[in-house]
User: Fold Sensor-like histidine kinase SenX3 from Cellulomonas shaoxiangyii.
Amino acid sequence: PGRLLVQARVAQVTPEHVLLLAEDLTQARRLEAIRRDFVVNVSHELKTPVGALSLLAETVQDAADDPQAVRRFAGRMQAEATRLSALVHEIIELSRLQATGALEEAEPVEVDEVVAEAVDRARTGADAKRVRVSTGGESGVTVFGDHNLLVTAVRNLLDNAVAYSPAGTQVAVGVRRRGELVEIAVVDEGVGIDPADQERVFERFYRVDPARSRDTGGTGLGLSIVKHVAADHGGDVSVWSQPGRGSTFTLRLPVADSRPPEPPPSDTDT
Ligand code: ADP
Assistant:
């Protein structure tokens, strides 16, 4: 870290002149290390549900003459398979975001529509948990980007807000324009996040409480995806939280009529 890695090439242009080409490999090496880390993490994360599935399959075979037990274990197998499928889906999504780094197709996107679609998709989970979701704030704001990616980002924030909140609480999504930026805030009254963890929750596979995250079907990739989507749109995402009281995740994006999205910063490696 901090050291520059340079690859130099020498070419004789004329008998008197030599051309020296220096290429900075620091970034390339760093990306390579990030990719390697990712593969190691992915393998580790995939082993857990696959191991659980194989153990459950064995148990079902042993319990073949007990229909009730078979049903119970089959249910757990189903839950593991669902988790595995969510994990694979998010891994693919994240590697796609990591590989491209920039938006392939950017067009004007209505923030209202993004929020409405994300709320719609999160609704079933919220209803099942008896968490009320409300929306409010400014309407008619446009950003420049990819509608589907933005829906995924807001939905991830919403799914988390619901997952880490007790029944009977509320989740509010608010849209506010601040100069050249629009803020989409997802506010919950849930378990909250300790200050020490707040900085780390955007890292890949980071979970404050792995057991709880597992219960909620979490993969530890949701916020990492949100961070990438935000960066690819020239924006960012941040968290404010009081443990035991709730959390607010804010997605900040440049408004479309202010300026085109900037290329993503290079440190979106978590
Ligand atoms: P997961 O799939 O585990 O939810 P995320 O990347 O979405 O992964 O979130 C990382 C961790 O951050 C979670 O495991 C959880 O501990 C914490 N977290 C995320 N959102 C919230 C929230 N709204 N309230 C409390 N904790 C949260």
User: Anything to note?
Assistant: The first strand starts at residue 6 and ends at 12. Residues 120 and 155 are 9 Å apart (CA to CA).
